[in-house]
Amino acid sequence: MSSTEYSHKHIDKVSSDNLDIGFDLLSNLTYMSVLSLGSLPRDQVLEHCARQHFKTAVFFDFIYVMAKRVGMEYTHAFQLAAEKARASSVKSLLLRFAASISSGESEREFVIQEAHTEGERYGNEYERGVENLRKWTDAYAAILISVTLIMVVSLVSTMMGSLDQSFIIIMAFALFFITGVGVYIIHKVAPVEAVTYDAKGSLTKHRKKSRLLLLLLAPIGIAVAVFFGPQYDMMMGSAVAFLAIGISILPAGWYAWKDDGSVSNLDAEFPTFVRSVGTIAGASGVTLTQALKKIDTKSMGSLQPHIDRLNVRLGARLPTEACWDAFRAETGSELVRRTTHMLEDGAELGGRPDHVGSICSTFAQTMVQLRAKRALTASTFSFLTLPMHATMTFILVFVLEIITNFNTKLTTASAGLEGGEGMNFTVPDGLTIPPGVSLPAQGELAGGLELFGNQDMGMVTLMIVIVVAILTIANSLAPKAAAGGSNLKIVSYFGLMSLVSGFILAIVPMVTSKIFGI
Protein backbone atom coordinates (compact mmCIF):
# COMPACT_ATOMS: atom_id res chain seq x y z
CA MET A 1 0.00 0.00 0.00
CA SER A 2 1.38 3.40 -0.97
CA SER A 3 1.87 6.26 1.45
CA THR A 4 -0.98 8.19 -0.15
CA GLU A 5 -3.42 5.29 0.16
CA TYR A 6 -2.34 4.68 3.75
CA SER A 7 -2.94 8.31 4.71
CA HIS A 8 -6.40 8.60 3.18
CA LYS A 9 -7.62 5.22 4.43
CA HIS A 10 -6.38 5.47 8.01
CA ILE A 11 -6.47 9.11 9.02
CA ASP A 12 -10.18 8.93 9.87
CA LYS A 13 -9.67 5.82 12.02
CA VAL A 14 -7.51 7.56 14.61
CA SER A 15 -9.29 7.68 17.94
CA SER A 16 -11.01 10.85 19.07
CA ASP A 17 -9.98 10.11 22.66
CA ASN A 18 -7.09 12.38 23.66
CA LEU A 19 -5.78 9.91 26.24
CA ASP A 20 -5.92 7.02 23.78
CA ILE A 21 -3.48 8.72 21.39
CA GLY A 22 -1.64 10.82 23.96
CA PHE A 23 1.37 8.51 24.20
CA ASP A 24 1.74 8.41 20.41
CA LEU A 25 1.36 12.17 20.07
CA LEU A 26 3.99 12.84 22.73
CA SER A 27 6.31 10.31 21.07
CA ASN A 28 5.80 11.98 17.69
CA LEU A 29 6.52 15.46 19.02
CA THR A 30 9.58 14.28 20.93
CA TYR A 31 10.86 12.63 17.76
CA MET A 32 10.26 15.85 15.81
CA SER A 33 12.09 17.89 18.42
CA VAL A 34 15.07 15.50 18.21
CA LEU A 35 15.16 15.77 14.42
CA SER A 36 14.89 19.55 14.58
CA LEU A 37 18.23 19.65 16.44
CA GLY A 38 19.91 18.66 13.17
CA SER A 39 18.28 21.57 11.29
CA LEU A 40 16.62 19.20 8.83
CA PRO A 41 14.30 20.66 6.19
CA ARG A 42 10.61 20.56 7.02
CA ASP A 43 9.78 17.94 4.42
CA GLN A 44 12.44 15.53 5.76
CA VAL A 45 11.21 15.96 9.32
CA LEU A 46 7.66 15.13 8.23
CA GLU A 47 8.84 12.24 6.10
CA HIS A 48 10.73 10.65 9.00
CA CYS A 49 7.78 11.21 11.34
CA ALA A 50 5.44 9.55 8.87
CA ARG A 51 7.58 6.39 8.94
CA GLN A 52 7.15 5.86 12.67
CA HIS A 53 4.68 3.26 13.88
CA PHE A 54 2.54 5.76 15.80
CA LYS A 55 -1.19 6.32 15.44
CA THR A 56 -0.61 10.04 14.94
CA ALA A 57 1.99 9.42 12.20
CA VAL A 58 -0.81 9.29 9.62
CA PHE A 59 -1.40 13.03 10.06
CA PHE A 60 2.20 13.90 9.23
CA ASP A 61 2.13 11.42 6.37
CA PHE A 62 -0.98 13.15 5.04
CA ILE A 63 0.63 16.58 5.34
CA TYR A 64 3.81 15.37 3.64
CA VAL A 65 1.85 13.88 0.75
CA MET A 66 -0.31 17.00 0.31
CA ALA A 67 2.67 19.36 0.34
CA LYS A 68 5.34 17.33 -1.43
CA ARG A 69 3.37 15.43 -4.01
CA VAL A 70 0.20 17.44 -4.52
CA GLY A 71 1.94 20.81 -4.24
CA MET A 72 -0.25 22.29 -1.51
CA GLU A 73 1.22 24.92 0.79
CA TYR A 74 2.23 23.60 4.20
CA THR A 75 -0.09 26.03 5.96
CA HIS A 76 -3.11 24.73 4.05
CA ALA A 77 -1.94 21.13 4.43
CA PHE A 78 -1.77 21.47 8.21
CA GLN A 79 -5.19 23.14 8.27
CA LEU A 80 -6.70 20.40 6.10
CA ALA A 81 -5.24 17.71 8.37
CA ALA A 82 -6.63 19.56 11.39
CA GLU A 83 -10.11 19.41 9.87
CA LYS A 84 -9.83 15.63 9.60
CA ALA A 85 -8.51 15.18 13.16
CA ARG A 86 -11.13 14.12 15.70
CA ALA A 87 -8.99 14.42 18.82
CA SER A 88 -8.94 17.98 20.13
CA SER A 89 -5.27 17.74 21.13
CA VAL A 90 -4.22 16.81 17.58
CA LYS A 91 -6.50 19.38 15.99
CA SER A 92 -5.19 22.25 18.11
CA LEU A 93 -1.57 21.16 17.56
CA LEU A 94 -1.92 21.14 13.77
CA LEU A 95 -3.64 24.53 13.77
CA ARG A 96 -0.88 26.00 15.94
CA PHE A 97 1.69 24.49 13.59
CA ALA A 98 -0.02 26.17 10.62
CA ALA A 99 -0.07 29.50 12.46
CA SER A 100 3.61 29.14 13.36
CA ILE A 101 4.55 28.58 9.71
CA SER A 102 2.52 31.61 8.64
CA SER A 103 4.17 33.84 11.24
CA GLY A 104 7.70 32.74 10.34
CA GLU A 105 8.47 31.43 13.84
CA SER A 106 11.49 29.17 14.22
CA GLU A 107 10.27 25.63 13.68
CA ARG A 108 12.96 24.23 15.95
CA GLU A 109 11.90 26.38 18.89
CA PHE A 110 8.24 25.74 18.14
CA VAL A 111 8.59 21.95 18.03
CA ILE A 112 10.71 21.78 21.19
CA GLN A 113 8.23 24.01 23.04
CA GLU A 114 5.26 21.95 21.78
CA ALA A 115 6.96 18.73 22.89
CA HIS A 116 7.45 20.21 26.36
CA THR A 117 3.85 21.45 26.48
CA GLU A 118 2.48 18.11 25.28
CA GLY A 119 4.56 16.34 27.91
CA GLU A 120 2.94 18.41 30.66
CA ARG A 121 -0.54 17.96 29.18
CA TYR A 122 -0.08 14.21 28.81
CA GLY A 123 1.27 13.97 32.34
CA ASN A 124 -1.79 15.77 33.72
CA GLU A 125 -4.14 13.56 31.69
CA TYR A 126 -2.27 10.47 32.82
CA GLU A 127 -2.43 11.43 36.50
CA ARG A 128 -6.12 12.20 36.17
CA GLY A 129 -6.59 8.77 34.61
CA VAL A 130 -4.72 7.18 37.52
CA GLU A 131 -6.91 9.02 40.01
CA ASN A 132 -10.06 7.86 38.17
CA LEU A 133 -8.62 4.37 38.13
CA ARG A 134 -8.14 4.47 41.90
CA LYS A 135 -11.76 5.50 42.44
CA TRP A 136 -13.20 2.92 40.05
CA THR A 137 -11.17 0.04 41.42
CA ASP A 138 -12.52 0.86 44.88
CA ALA A 139 -16.03 1.08 43.44
CA TYR A 140 -15.58 -2.23 41.61
CA ALA A 141 -14.63 -4.02 44.82
CA ALA A 142 -17.51 -2.46 46.78
CA ILE A 143 -20.13 -3.20 44.11
CA LEU A 144 -18.94 -6.76 43.64
CA ILE A 145 -19.12 -7.47 47.36
CA SER A 146 -22.60 -5.93 47.53
CA VAL A 147 -23.91 -8.07 44.68
CA THR A 148 -22.39 -11.17 46.27
CA LEU A 149 -24.15 -10.43 49.55
CA ILE A 150 -27.43 -10.00 47.66
CA MET A 151 -26.81 -13.41 46.12
CA VAL A 152 -26.38 -14.86 49.62
CA VAL A 153 -29.62 -13.25 50.82
CA SER A 154 -31.47 -14.59 47.79
CA LEU A 155 -30.12 -18.08 48.51
CA VAL A 156 -31.39 -17.96 52.08
CA SER A 157 -34.71 -16.53 50.94
CA THR A 158 -35.09 -19.34 48.44
CA MET A 159 -34.53 -21.86 51.23
CA MET A 160 -37.24 -20.22 53.31
CA GLY A 161 -39.62 -20.36 50.39
CA SER A 162 -40.16 -16.61 50.23
CA LEU A 163 -38.51 -16.33 46.81
CA ASP A 164 -38.63 -18.44 43.69
CA GLN A 165 -35.49 -19.99 42.21
CA SER A 166 -35.85 -17.75 39.18
CA PHE A 167 -34.66 -14.89 41.39
CA ILE A 168 -31.28 -16.65 41.68
CA ILE A 169 -31.06 -16.71 37.89
CA ILE A 170 -31.94 -13.03 37.70
CA MET A 171 -29.28 -12.16 40.26
CA ALA A 172 -26.69 -14.23 38.37
CA PHE A 173 -27.41 -12.23 35.21
CA ALA A 174 -27.24 -9.02 37.25
CA LEU A 175 -23.85 -10.02 38.62
CA PHE A 176 -22.63 -10.81 35.10
CA PHE A 177 -23.80 -7.41 33.87
CA ILE A 178 -22.31 -5.50 36.80
CA THR A 179 -18.93 -7.24 36.62
CA GLY A 180 -18.82 -6.75 32.85
CA VAL A 181 -19.57 -3.04 33.17
CA GLY A 182 -17.06 -2.72 36.01
CA VAL A 183 -14.24 -4.32 34.02
CA TYR A 184 -15.10 -2.20 30.97
CA ILE A 185 -15.05 1.03 32.96
CA ILE A 186 -11.70 0.16 34.55
CA HIS A 187 -10.35 -0.55 31.06
CA LYS A 188 -11.62 2.78 29.72
CA VAL A 189 -10.47 5.03 32.57
CA ALA A 190 -7.01 3.46 32.82
CA PRO A 191 -4.26 5.29 30.87
CA VAL A 192 -3.66 3.84 27.42
CA GLU A 193 -0.05 3.07 26.54
CA ALA A 194 1.98 0.42 24.77
CA VAL A 195 4.34 -1.24 27.26
CA THR A 196 5.68 -4.32 25.50
CA TYR A 197 7.15 -4.66 22.04
CA ASP A 198 7.00 -7.81 19.93
CA ALA A 199 9.42 -7.71 17.03
CA LYS A 200 8.49 -9.67 13.92
CA GLY A 201 9.86 -13.18 14.32
CA SER A 202 11.53 -12.42 17.66
CA LEU A 203 10.26 -12.49 21.23
CA THR A 204 11.88 -12.10 24.60
CA LYS A 205 12.96 -15.30 26.36
CA HIS A 206 10.22 -15.27 29.00
CA ARG A 207 7.52 -14.16 26.57
CA LYS A 208 8.39 -16.97 24.17
CA LYS A 209 8.23 -19.56 26.97
CA SER A 210 4.93 -18.16 28.20
CA ARG A 211 3.27 -18.42 24.80
CA LEU A 212 4.71 -21.87 24.13
CA LEU A 213 3.54 -23.25 27.48
CA LEU A 214 0.13 -21.70 26.99
CA LEU A 215 -0.26 -23.35 23.59
CA LEU A 216 0.95 -26.72 24.89
CA LEU A 217 -0.60 -27.00 28.35
CA ALA A 218 -3.87 -25.06 28.09
CA PRO A 219 -5.49 -27.60 25.70
CA ILE A 220 -4.45 -30.39 28.06
CA GLY A 221 -6.09 -28.62 31.00
CA ILE A 222 -9.28 -28.05 29.03
CA ALA A 223 -9.32 -31.71 27.93
CA VAL A 224 -8.92 -32.89 31.53
CA ALA A 225 -11.71 -30.57 32.64
CA VAL A 226 -14.07 -31.80 29.91
CA PHE A 227 -13.27 -35.50 30.41
CA PHE A 228 -13.02 -35.82 34.20
CA GLY A 229 -15.39 -33.06 35.30
CA PRO A 230 -18.65 -34.84 34.32
CA GLN A 231 -17.58 -37.99 36.21
CA TYR A 232 -18.28 -36.30 39.57
CA ASP A 233 -21.22 -34.43 41.00
CA MET A 234 -21.69 -30.86 39.87
CA MET A 235 -19.73 -29.22 42.67
CA MET A 236 -16.75 -31.58 42.63
CA GLY A 237 -16.75 -31.73 38.84
CA SER A 238 -16.57 -27.93 38.68
CA ALA A 239 -13.71 -27.99 41.19
CA VAL A 240 -11.80 -30.50 39.04
CA ALA A 241 -12.36 -28.30 35.97
CA PHE A 242 -11.13 -25.13 37.68
CA LEU A 243 -8.10 -26.87 39.17
CA ALA A 244 -7.16 -28.54 35.88
CA ILE A 245 -7.36 -25.27 33.94
CA GLY A 246 -5.56 -23.30 36.65
CA ILE A 247 -2.70 -25.78 36.97
CA SER A 248 -2.29 -26.06 33.19
CA ILE A 249 -1.93 -22.32 32.54
CA LEU A 250 -0.07 -21.35 35.72
CA PRO A 251 3.42 -22.09 34.23
CA ALA A 252 2.64 -19.77 31.30
CA GLY A 253 1.38 -17.17 33.75
CA TRP A 254 4.59 -17.46 35.77
CA TYR A 255 6.76 -16.62 32.77
CA ALA A 256 4.37 -13.84 31.75
CA TRP A 257 4.75 -12.34 35.22
CA LYS A 258 8.55 -12.60 35.00
CA ASP A 259 8.53 -10.98 31.56
CA ASP A 260 6.44 -8.08 32.85
CA GLY A 261 8.84 -7.54 35.74
CA SER A 262 11.83 -7.69 33.39
CA VAL A 263 10.36 -5.05 31.08
CA SER A 264 9.55 -2.81 34.07
CA ASN A 265 13.13 -3.05 35.35
CA LEU A 266 14.58 -2.30 31.92
CA ASP A 267 12.35 0.75 31.49
CA ALA A 268 13.31 2.08 34.91
CA GLU A 269 17.05 1.85 34.14
CA PHE A 270 16.88 2.96 30.52
CA PRO A 271 16.78 6.79 30.97
CA THR A 272 20.20 6.68 32.66
CA PHE A 273 21.62 4.61 29.81
CA VAL A 274 20.35 7.00 27.13
CA ARG A 275 21.66 10.07 28.94
CA SER A 276 25.05 8.42 29.48
CA VAL A 277 25.45 7.44 25.83
CA GLY A 278 24.49 10.90 24.62
CA THR A 279 26.74 12.67 27.11
CA ILE A 280 29.79 10.54 26.27
CA ALA A 281 29.24 10.89 22.53
CA GLY A 282 28.72 14.65 22.78
CA ALA A 283 31.65 15.32 25.11
CA SER A 284 34.09 13.11 23.22
CA GLY A 285 32.90 14.00 19.73
CA VAL A 286 32.45 10.33 18.80
CA THR A 287 29.64 8.26 17.36
CA LEU A 288 27.08 6.37 19.42
CA THR A 289 28.83 3.10 18.57
CA GLN A 290 32.11 4.36 20.00
CA ALA A 291 30.37 5.87 23.01
CA LEU A 292 28.77 2.52 23.84
CA LYS A 293 32.21 0.96 24.27
CA LYS A 294 33.10 3.50 26.95
CA ILE A 295 30.07 2.78 29.15
CA ASP A 296 30.59 0.77 32.32
CA THR A 297 27.92 -1.86 31.68
CA LYS A 298 28.26 -3.28 35.21
CA SER A 299 26.48 -0.20 36.53
CA MET A 300 23.55 -0.65 34.14
CA GLY A 301 21.80 -3.38 36.11
CA SER A 302 19.47 -5.55 34.03
CA LEU A 303 20.50 -3.69 30.86
CA GLN A 304 24.05 -5.07 31.07
CA PRO A 305 23.60 -8.29 29.02
CA HIS A 306 21.65 -6.43 26.34
CA ILE A 307 24.29 -3.69 26.05
CA ASP A 308 27.09 -6.26 25.94
CA ARG A 309 25.42 -8.10 23.08
CA LEU A 310 24.86 -4.79 21.27
CA ASN A 311 28.56 -3.97 21.60
CA VAL A 312 29.54 -7.40 20.30
CA ARG A 313 27.34 -7.01 17.22
CA LEU A 314 28.56 -3.49 16.53
CA GLY A 315 32.16 -4.62 17.05
CA ALA A 316 31.63 -7.33 14.43
CA ARG A 317 30.76 -4.53 11.99
CA LEU A 318 27.25 -5.75 11.37
CA PRO A 319 24.78 -3.18 9.97
CA THR A 320 24.09 -0.60 12.68
CA GLU A 321 20.33 -0.59 12.14
CA ALA A 322 20.19 -4.39 12.40
CA CYS A 323 22.18 -4.29 15.66
CA TRP A 324 19.81 -1.77 17.21
CA ASP A 325 16.78 -3.73 15.96
CA ALA A 326 18.13 -6.84 17.70
CA PHE A 327 18.64 -4.79 20.87
CA ARG A 328 15.04 -3.59 20.76
CA ALA A 329 13.70 -7.08 20.12
CA GLU A 330 15.64 -8.60 23.02
CA THR A 331 14.46 -6.02 25.52
CA GLY A 332 10.83 -6.37 24.41
CA SER A 333 10.04 -2.85 25.63
CA GLU A 334 8.04 -0.36 23.59
CA LEU A 335 9.61 2.53 25.49
CA VAL A 336 13.09 1.25 24.59
CA ARG A 337 12.06 0.84 20.96
CA ARG A 338 10.73 4.38 20.62
CA THR A 339 13.55 6.04 22.55
CA THR A 340 16.36 4.25 20.72
CA HIS A 341 14.84 5.25 17.38
CA MET A 342 14.86 8.85 18.57
CA LEU A 343 18.44 8.58 19.83
CA GLU A 344 19.80 6.86 16.74
CA ASP A 345 18.01 9.02 14.14
CA GLY A 346 18.64 12.27 16.00
CA ALA A 347 22.39 11.64 16.28
CA GLU A 348 22.76 10.39 12.70
CA LEU A 349 20.78 13.27 11.18
CA GLY A 350 22.93 16.05 12.56
CA GLY A 351 21.82 16.59 16.15
CA ARG A 352 24.36 16.91 18.95
CA PRO A 353 24.35 13.55 20.76
CA ASP A 354 24.34 15.12 24.22
CA HIS A 355 21.30 17.27 23.40
CA VAL A 356 19.57 14.35 21.71
CA GLY A 357 20.33 12.08 24.66
CA SER A 358 18.99 14.66 27.10
CA ILE A 359 15.66 14.98 25.26
CA CYS A 360 15.31 11.20 24.88
CA SER A 361 16.20 10.62 28.53
CA THR A 362 13.66 13.20 29.68
CA PHE A 363 10.98 11.53 27.58
CA ALA A 364 11.79 8.08 28.95
CA GLN A 365 12.04 9.32 32.53
CA THR A 366 8.65 11.04 32.26
CA MET A 367 7.03 7.80 31.16
CA VAL A 368 8.75 5.79 33.89
CA GLN A 369 7.57 8.16 36.61
CA LEU A 370 3.99 8.18 35.32
CA ARG A 371 3.92 4.40 35.13
CA ALA A 372 5.20 4.17 38.69
CA LYS A 373 2.14 6.12 39.86
CA ARG A 374 -0.13 3.80 37.95
CA ALA A 375 1.68 0.73 39.26
CA LEU A 376 1.05 1.86 42.84
CA THR A 377 -2.70 1.90 42.31
CA ALA A 378 -2.78 -1.21 40.12
CA SER A 379 -0.64 -3.33 42.44
CA THR A 380 -2.81 -2.46 45.43
CA PHE A 381 -5.91 -3.44 43.48
CA SER A 382 -4.29 -6.64 42.24
CA PHE A 383 -3.32 -7.74 45.75
CA LEU A 384 -6.84 -6.91 46.94
CA THR A 385 -8.57 -8.83 44.14
CA LEU A 386 -7.20 -12.26 45.08
CA PRO A 387 -8.37 -12.34 48.73
CA MET A 388 -11.59 -10.59 47.72
CA HIS A 389 -12.27 -13.28 45.14
CA ALA A 390 -11.46 -16.02 47.64
CA THR A 391 -13.76 -14.49 50.25
CA MET A 392 -16.71 -14.01 47.90
CA THR A 393 -16.38 -17.50 46.45
CA PHE A 394 -16.10 -19.03 49.93
CA ILE A 395 -19.22 -17.24 51.17
CA LEU A 396 -21.29 -18.31 48.16
CA VAL A 397 -20.20 -21.94 48.28
CA PHE A 398 -20.44 -22.17 52.08
CA VAL A 399 -24.00 -20.77 52.17
CA LEU A 400 -24.98 -23.04 49.28
CA GLU A 401 -23.67 -26.07 51.16
CA ILE A 402 -25.53 -25.05 54.31
CA ILE A 403 -28.75 -24.79 52.32
CA THR A 404 -28.07 -28.09 50.55
CA ASN A 405 -27.46 -29.92 53.84
CA PHE A 406 -30.49 -28.27 55.42
CA ASN A 407 -32.59 -29.32 52.44
CA THR A 408 -31.30 -32.89 52.78
CA LYS A 409 -32.32 -33.05 56.43
CA LEU A 410 -35.67 -31.45 55.61
CA THR A 411 -36.27 -34.03 52.92
CA THR A 412 -35.54 -36.80 55.40
CA ALA A 413 -37.89 -35.28 57.97
CA SER A 414 -40.63 -34.80 55.37
CA ALA A 415 -40.31 -38.42 54.28
CA GLY A 416 -40.78 -39.51 57.89
CA LEU A 417 -43.85 -37.34 58.25
CA GLU A 418 -45.38 -38.67 55.05
CA GLY A 419 -44.68 -42.23 56.19
CA GLY A 420 -46.66 -41.64 59.40
CA GLU A 421 -43.75 -42.13 61.80
CA GLY A 422 -44.76 -40.61 65.11
CA MET A 423 -47.92 -39.17 63.57
CA ASN A 424 -50.61 -41.03 65.56
CA PHE A 425 -52.37 -38.13 67.27
CA THR A 426 -54.53 -39.03 70.30
CA VAL A 427 -56.53 -36.79 72.57
CA PRO A 428 -55.34 -37.00 76.18
CA ASP A 429 -57.86 -37.97 78.84
CA GLY A 430 -59.81 -35.04 80.21
CA LEU A 431 -59.30 -32.88 77.11
CA THR A 432 -61.97 -32.07 74.60
CA ILE A 433 -61.62 -30.76 71.10
CA PRO A 434 -63.49 -27.49 70.55
CA PRO A 435 -66.13 -27.44 67.84
CA GLY A 436 -64.65 -26.63 64.38
CA VAL A 437 -61.11 -27.72 65.32
CA SER A 438 -59.63 -30.88 63.81
CA LEU A 439 -56.28 -32.58 64.16
CA PRO A 440 -54.04 -32.79 61.07
CA ALA A 441 -54.28 -35.99 59.15
CA GLN A 442 -51.24 -38.02 58.19
CA GLY A 443 -49.20 -36.22 55.52
CA GLU A 444 -50.73 -32.80 56.14
CA LEU A 445 -47.71 -31.55 58.05
CA ALA A 446 -45.44 -32.43 55.20
CA GLY A 447 -47.60 -30.53 52.78
CA GLY A 448 -48.13 -27.66 55.17
CA LEU A 449 -44.44 -26.76 55.65
CA GLU A 450 -44.65 -23.68 53.47
CA LEU A 451 -41.97 -21.79 55.37
CA PHE A 452 -39.21 -24.35 54.83
CA GLY A 453 -40.08 -26.40 51.80
CA ASN A 454 -38.05 -28.94 49.88
CA GLN A 455 -36.03 -27.32 47.06
CA ASP A 456 -34.56 -28.67 43.85
CA MET A 457 -30.92 -27.73 44.49
CA GLY A 458 -29.68 -28.76 41.03
CA MET A 459 -30.55 -25.46 39.38
CA VAL A 460 -29.36 -23.42 42.36
CA THR A 461 -26.01 -25.24 42.43
CA LEU A 462 -25.58 -24.74 38.69
CA MET A 463 -26.19 -21.00 38.99
CA ILE A 464 -23.70 -20.67 41.85
CA VAL A 465 -21.06 -22.49 39.80
CA ILE A 466 -21.76 -20.11 36.91
CA VAL A 467 -21.47 -17.14 39.28
CA VAL A 468 -18.10 -18.46 40.51
CA ALA A 469 -16.96 -18.76 36.88
CA ILE A 470 -18.09 -15.16 36.20
CA LEU A 471 -16.20 -13.90 39.23
CA THR A 472 -13.10 -15.87 38.20
CA ILE A 473 -13.05 -14.33 34.72
CA ALA A 474 -13.93 -10.80 35.87
CA ASN A 475 -11.36 -10.80 38.66
CA SER A 476 -8.74 -11.92 36.14
CA LEU A 477 -9.53 -9.19 33.61
CA ALA A 478 -9.94 -6.29 36.06
CA PRO A 479 -6.35 -6.32 37.46
CA LYS A 480 -4.93 -6.58 33.94
CA ALA A 481 -7.06 -3.64 32.78
CA ALA A 482 -5.83 -1.61 35.75
CA ALA A 483 -2.14 -2.48 35.36
CA GLY A 484 -1.85 -2.50 31.56
CA GLY A 485 1.01 -4.26 29.83
CA SER A 486 1.03 -7.49 27.84
CA ASN A 487 -2.19 -9.47 27.45
CA LEU A 488 -0.27 -12.51 28.72
CA LYS A 489 -0.73 -11.06 32.21
CA ILE A 490 -4.34 -12.18 32.00
CA VAL A 491 -3.02 -15.75 32.06
CA SER A 492 -1.24 -15.07 35.35
CA TYR A 493 -4.34 -13.72 37.05
CA PHE A 494 -6.68 -16.31 35.53
CA GLY A 495 -4.44 -19.18 36.65
CA LEU A 496 -4.42 -17.94 40.25
CA MET A 497 -8.15 -17.19 40.34
CA SER A 498 -8.97 -20.61 38.86
CA LEU A 499 -6.88 -22.38 41.49
CA VAL A 500 -8.58 -20.43 44.27
CA SER A 501 -12.04 -21.18 42.85
CA GLY A 502 -11.25 -24.87 42.39
CA PHE A 503 -9.76 -25.24 45.85
CA ILE A 504 -12.80 -23.65 47.51
CA LEU A 505 -15.28 -25.69 45.44
CA ALA A 506 -13.44 -28.87 46.45
CA ILE A 507 -12.77 -28.20 50.13
CA VAL A 508 -15.81 -26.28 51.39
CA PRO A 509 -18.38 -29.05 50.65
CA MET A 510 -16.27 -31.60 52.53
CA VAL A 511 -15.79 -29.28 55.51
CA THR A 512 -19.49 -28.43 55.61
CA SER A 513 -20.45 -32.09 55.49
CA LYS A 514 -18.20 -32.76 58.48
CA ILE A 515 -19.79 -29.91 60.39
CA PHE A 516 -23.32 -31.16 59.74
CA GLY A 517 -22.36 -34.80 60.19
CA ILE A 518 -23.50 -35.89 56.74
Distance from N terminus to C terminus (CA atoms, Å) equals 71 Å
Please indicate the count of domains.
3
The assembly state of the depicted protein chains is: single chain
The secondary structure category is mainly alpha
Would you write up a description of this structure?
The protein folds into 3 domains: 3-105, no CATH class; 127-193 and 203-264 and 374-413 and 451-516, no CATH class; 269-367, no CATH class. It contains 18 helices and no strands. Helices cover 77% and strands 0% of the residues. The termini are far apart. The chain has 518 residues and is mostly helical.
Descriptive tags:
518 residues, mainly alpha, 3 domains
Topology of this structure?
Blueprint: H1 3-10, H2 18-36, H3 42-51, H4 57-69, H5 74-84, H6 88-103, H7 107-160, H8 166-189, H9 205-228, H10 234-284, H11 288-293, H12 304-315, H13 320-331, H14 334-348, H15 353-418, H16 444-448, H17 457-483, H18 489-516
Helix pairs in contact: 1-4, 2-7, 2-14, 2-15, 3-4, 4-5, 5-6, 7-8, 7-15, 8-17, 9-10, 10-14, 10-15, 10-18, 12-13, 13-14, 14-15, 15-17, 15-18, 17-18
